[in-house]
């Protein structure tokens, strides 16, 4: 082992990384799941959240088997100001005297609401952090007469660990959305057009979730509920679960790649050792060593390297897993962090290493004891049979290439398993790199599509009063604004085939410049509506179907026909022309639909800015327009999302590094073994006057060709794997489809070539340092 | 009298450092004329392969001088040594050392390519000389030991070197095949100025040499001219 210490080290590092990745990611996965479960349990996170429904619904549900508790509350999204900032504040009603039975909050700083303090609020941690709020600070609701609230505490909520505003609004800009818990009596007093009633249901621990879900769902549907969300579909939870599931998938898939590579490397290395120790094996066998003892001896190489790699990997994995868990829970402000060193993970991690080491040593060990002693003691192995390379057979003119080139081509066929190991190293590394790189590309593309193709407005201007022609004229005339359009927006829900979808219905002008249309026609239809493509799967509907769309804040239901689908990355929205919605409201019995549409909670002014004028100055001017309540900068969210991408880039960078290490380990081993086996051949060529450079180029050519051979299936498999991962990340909120940049593929492929060249350096240098005299002397009798 | 082809003076080669040194060549001196067939004779460990490696510039000397065709090779750089090996010496090894993935013709042409034009024609020519024109398309594994050694000799002479260095070329062959190889080596040098060095521990082979240099423990213990060399066919061992 001493002689091949660098090769053993390379194999060992691969085993360590593989086992470490498994132990770290799998433990993190379990830790995160446990952290969420502990938080959810402690805060009595609702198993079902129902919006709307008749007055008797809570009582009916409470009587259902398996239901432990029901809490009724009201929630309202209201414009608020914190200092100079205006944002949408979600006021969640909660009992002033005590925590509710369902969806408790975890007060981290300050106190819970007091029974005698009517205008108190507890700020959710995300808004508190964004605006640096602490107990004693205030904010103001700015509708109607307005009201100042005093913040008495800062709290975490299981509902807002990921601060999603709704299923359709997973990424609200933190400066423009915040959650506050206030006295339920205050929110309940608000008119139905402003607040919604929610029924939160908690199940018994021993209840069968699916059964109770079904019973509650049927009951809520019968009672006319407008939205029924299971805990799995709850916006924050479903977003976080995607992440956790991603961890779970990675915890298995990526370590398998590494351990496969490590196994191949052990196999290649031990085959070489057995080959080089033929005469010793022969002598030992001739001296009476049994086949079993010999097999045990060579198996022990694999066993040791697997065991040492696994022990180090498990140790590093335990530390990394704890760090990853803590970083993750800290980054997301998960109230509970559960870090457990699990014997099961340790055992499986150790088994991974030991099994991989032993299995990959089996074939070389078998080869060792299968050698006949007389044959083995001759030292040199039987001469390998020659033959033209496959390429020469397929393309006969290649046989006219120089002998050096032919030798390079045929060199790949000298040891087919070793060549396969080199190719496999490239394939596995590319799968690792492209699977993670593809996810990043898709997310970047998704975000670019959402903000540069779909939502192209610069800002949304929210009025404080019914939107009038004069107000629009003033907004349009503001310096820096190049266009302003009215855009209506309703929270909506629609039900078909027993499934309910909580969504939004938006109304745009016919020739809107605020939104890009991804339907085949490329525009809004003059009648009917466009629907997000995901609706087909979710509700089992198709083009031509008429859907009843409930607008719970106005207690209205309208009907619109699906004309085409749009392919948008975020959510499953519904779109119709402004006038189409107005007419649908009229058909639904609304006497003055124009007045309803003009309500400031319905219609905002979307604007485009002059890029030549400073953006913040334009926003400031808009905020100064009389009748403007708030200006929501569309770029703010885009910038926030971009910041999150930094984490993803770091993740991809680590995967690229690991992929490079894996490819290097395998290639370094195969190349080292290749050169070691051919030292006599190279010495002979050097003795005949062939330069180191010529020999070096032959080795480089041979291995680069193998690398290129690996790149093709590696790219195909990598892209496929990335697509598989993206599929796992799709739900009602994200429509993830794989969009791999050719640059990513090119960079990954170029990286493999660079790694191949890097791993060739030691081998080429060893040829240069090859002691021809020593090789000749060793041969001499 | 012809010009000396190889002149060694005080040539010494020591392996290792400190307490673990081995003196493989100890103050070796001799002078070999062009065209001589020289046998380096000695038991295992006597230094004969080391001396051959010195003449072939496969490794450097610790001290002393070694002049080949008028050029001092003891102090050559790596690049100069490569050039020297390319232009001046051909090697024949005990275990042939053919490239298993190349045919007989390709094994020869591989070396011909790096030493001049028309490698294919020159390879065909020398394969004809060693009697293997009908085996040129065979791979080493398809040939006998004797045939492989013939290919190795063809590879050694394809660049027409002034020195042909043979390290135990018959060591792995039976008597008949060994004699035919020795005949071939002798004939490749006949009528040319090519100097042949042949390393062996077989004293019988020494009978065919023009000159026999005997080595023991790294020292030259005999340097004898053989006025009546035997024919290879007359040798028995």
What does this 3D model show about the protein?
The complex is a heterodimer of chains A (781) and B (237). By secondary structure, chain A is of the alpha+beta class. Chain A has four domains: 1-45 and 252-382, no CATH class; 50-205, no CATH class; 415-455 and 634-781, no CATH class; 465-626, no CATH class. In chain A, 53% of the residues lie in helices and 19% in strands. Chain A contains 23 helices and 19 strands. In chain A, the strands form two sheets. In chain A, strands 2-3-8-5-7-6 form a six-stranded mixed barrel. Chain A has a six-stranded mixed beta barrel with strand order 12-13-17-14-16-15. In chain A, a hairpin with a 5-residue loop joins strand 6 (138-141) and strand 7. In chain A, helix 1 runs antiparallel to helix 19 (634-677) and helix 8 (291-332) runs antiparallel to helix 9. Chain A is elongated, with a radius of gyration of 33 Å. Chain B has 237 residues and is α/β, with parallel strands linked by helices. Chain B has a single domain, classed as P-loop containing nucleotide triphosphate hydrolases (Rossmann fold). Chain B is 29% helix and 27% strand. Chain B has helices at 48-55, 78-88, 104-113, 119-129, 145-157, 175-189, and strands at 4-15, 22-33, 37-41, 63-68, 71-72, 89-92, 163-167, 195-200, 211-216, 219-225. Chain B has a six-stranded mixed β-sheet, with helices on both faces. Chain B has a four-stranded antiparallel β-sheet with strand order 2-1-4-5, with helices on one face. In chain B, helix 3 packs parallel to helix 5 and helix 5 packs parallel to helix 6 (175-189). Classes of the chains: A alpha+beta (781), B alpha/beta (237). The interface between A and B is large, with 38 and 46 residues.
CATH topology of chain B: Rossmann fold
Count of DSSP helices of chain B? 6
Helix proportion of residues of chain A, in percent? 40-55%
Rg from Cα of chain B: 17 Å
Give the averaged pLDDT of chain B, no decimals.
91
The average pLDDT score of chain A comes to 87
Total beta strand runs of chain A: 19
Relevant CATH superfamily of chain B:
P-loop containing nucleotide triphosphate hydrolases
Rg estimate of chain A, integer Å: 33 Å
Name the CATH class of chain B: Alpha Beta
Helix content class of chain B: 25-40%
Proportion of β residues of chain B?
25-35%
Number of domains of chain A: 4
Q: How many helices of chain A in DSSP terms? A: 23
Largest sheet of chain B: 6 strands, mixed
Category by helix and strand content of chain A: alpha+beta
């Amino acid at each position: 082992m001493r002689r091949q210490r660098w090769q053993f080290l390379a194999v060992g590092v691969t085993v360590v990384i593989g086992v470490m990745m498994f132990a770290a990611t799998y433990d993190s996965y379990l830790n995160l799941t446990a952290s969420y479960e502990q938080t959810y349990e402690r805060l009595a996170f609702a198993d079902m959240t129902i919006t709307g429904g008749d007055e008797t619904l809570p009582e009916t549900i409470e009587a259902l088997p398996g239901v432990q508790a029901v809490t009724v509350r009201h929630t309202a999204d209201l414009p608020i100001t914190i200092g100079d900032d205006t944002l949408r504040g979600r006021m969640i009603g909660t009992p002033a005297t005590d925590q509710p039975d369902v969806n408790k909050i975890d007060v981290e700083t300050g106190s819970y609401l007091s029974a005698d303090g009517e205008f108190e609020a507890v700020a959710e941690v995300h808004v508190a952090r964004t605006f640096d709020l602490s107990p004693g600070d205030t904010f103001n609701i700015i509708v109607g007469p307005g009201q100042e609230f005093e913040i008495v505490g800062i709290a975490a909520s299981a509902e807002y660990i990921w601060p999603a505003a709704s299923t359709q609004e997973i990424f609200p800009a933190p400066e423009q959305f915040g959650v506050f818990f206030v006295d339920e009596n205050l929110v309940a007093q608000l008119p139905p057009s402003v607040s919604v009633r929610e029924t939160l249901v908690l199940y018994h621990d021993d209840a069968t979730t699916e059964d109770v879900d079904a019973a509650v769902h049927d009951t809520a549907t019968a009672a006319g509920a407008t939205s029924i969300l299971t805990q799995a579909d709850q916006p924050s939870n479903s977003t976080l679960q995607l992440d956790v599931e991603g961890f779970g998938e990675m915890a298995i898939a990526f370590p398998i790649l590494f351990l496969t590579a490590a196994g191949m490397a052990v196999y290649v290395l031990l085959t070489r050792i057995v080959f080089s120790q033929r005469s010793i094996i022969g002598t030992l066998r001739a001296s009476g060593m049994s086949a079993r003892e010999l097999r045990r001896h060579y198996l022990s190489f694999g066993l040791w390297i697997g065991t040492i790699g696994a022990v180090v990997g498990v140790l590093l994995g335990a530390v990394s897993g704890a760090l990853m868990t803590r970083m993750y829970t800290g980054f997301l402000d998960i109230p509970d962090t559960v870090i457990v060193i699990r014997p099961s993970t340790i055992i499986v991690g150790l088994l991974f290493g030991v099994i991989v080491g032993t299995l990959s040593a089996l074939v070389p060990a078998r080869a060792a004891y299968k050698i006949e002693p007389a044959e083995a003691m001759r030292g040199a192995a039987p001469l390998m049979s020659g033959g033209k390379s496959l390429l020469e057979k397929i393309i006969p003119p290649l046989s006219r290439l120089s002998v050096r080139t032919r030798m390079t081509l045929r060199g790949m066929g000298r040891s087919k398993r070793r060549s396969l190991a080199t190719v496999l190293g490239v394939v596995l590394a590319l799968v690792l790199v492209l699977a993670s790189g593809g996810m990043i590309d898709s997310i970047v593309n998704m975000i670019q599509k959402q903000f540069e193709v779909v939502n192209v407005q610069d800002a949304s201007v929210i009025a404080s009063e019914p939107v009038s022609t004069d107000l629009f004229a003033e907004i349009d005339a503001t310096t820096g604004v190049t266009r302003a359009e009215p855009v209506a927006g309703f929270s909506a829900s629609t039900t078909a085939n027993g499934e309910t979808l909580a969504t939004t219905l938006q109304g745009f002008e016919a020739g809107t410049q605020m939104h890009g249309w991804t339907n085949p026609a490329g525009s809004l239809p003059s009648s009917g509506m466009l629907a997000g493509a995901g609706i087909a799967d979710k509700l089992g509907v198709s083009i031509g179907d008429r859907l009843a769309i409930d607008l719970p804040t106005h207690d209205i239901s309208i009907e619109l026909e699906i004309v085409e689908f749009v392919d948008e990355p975020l959510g499953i929205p519904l779109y119709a022309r402004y006038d189409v919605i107005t007419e649908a409201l009229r058909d639904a019995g609304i006497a003055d639909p124009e007045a309803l549409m003009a309500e400031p909670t319905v219609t905002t002014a979307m604007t485009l800015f002059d890029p030549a004028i400073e953006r913040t100055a334009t926003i400031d001017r808009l905020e100064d327009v009389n009748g403007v309540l708030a200006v929501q900068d569309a770029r703010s969210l885009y910038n926030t999302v971009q910041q999150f991408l930094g984490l993803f880039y770091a993740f991809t960078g680590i995967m690229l590094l690991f992929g490079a290490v894996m490819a290097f380990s395998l290639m370094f081993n195969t190349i080292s073994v290749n050169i070691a086996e051919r030292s006599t051949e190279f010495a002979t060529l050097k003795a005949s006057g062939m330069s180191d450079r010529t020999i070096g180029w032959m080795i480089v050519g041979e291995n680069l060709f193998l690398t290129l051979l690996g790149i093709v299936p590696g790219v195909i498999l990598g892209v496929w794997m990335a697509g598989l991962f993206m599929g796992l990340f799709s739900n009602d909120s994200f429509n993830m489809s794989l969009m791999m940049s050719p640059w990513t593929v090119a960079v990954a492929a170029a990286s493999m070539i660079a790694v191949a060249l890097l791993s060739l350096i030691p081998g080429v240098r060893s040829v240069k340092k090859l002691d021809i005299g020593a090789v000749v002397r060793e041969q001499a009798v | 009298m012809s010009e000396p082809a190889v002149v060694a003076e005080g040539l010494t080669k020591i392996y290792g450092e400190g307490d673990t040194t081995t003196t493989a060549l100890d103050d070796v001196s001799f002078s070999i004329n062009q065209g001589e067939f020289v046998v380096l004779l000695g038991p295992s460990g006597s230094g004969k392969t080391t001396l051959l490696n010195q003449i072939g510039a496969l490794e450097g000397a610790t001290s002393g001088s070694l002049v080949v065709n008028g050029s001092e090779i003891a102090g050559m750089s790596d690049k100069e040594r490569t050039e020297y090996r390319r232009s001046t010496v051909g090697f024949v090894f005990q275990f042939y050392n053919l490239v298993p993935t190349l045919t007989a013709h390709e094994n020869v042409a591989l070396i011909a390519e790096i030493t001049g034009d028309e490698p294919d024609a020159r390879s065909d020519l020398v394969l004809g000389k060693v009697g293997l024109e009908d085996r040129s398309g065979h791979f080493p594994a398809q040939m006998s030991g004797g045939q492989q050694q013939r290919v190795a000799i063809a590879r050694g002479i394809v660049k027409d070197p002034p020195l042909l260095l043979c390290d135990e070329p018959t060591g792995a062959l039976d008597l008949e095949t060994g004699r035919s190889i020795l005949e071939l080596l002798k004939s490749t040098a006949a009528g040319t100025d090519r100097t042949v060095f042949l390393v062996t521990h077989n004293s019988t082979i020494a009978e065919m040499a023009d000159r026999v240099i005997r080595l023991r423990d790294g020292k030259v213990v005999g340097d004898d001219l053989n006025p009546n060399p035997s024919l290879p066919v007359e040798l028995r061992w």
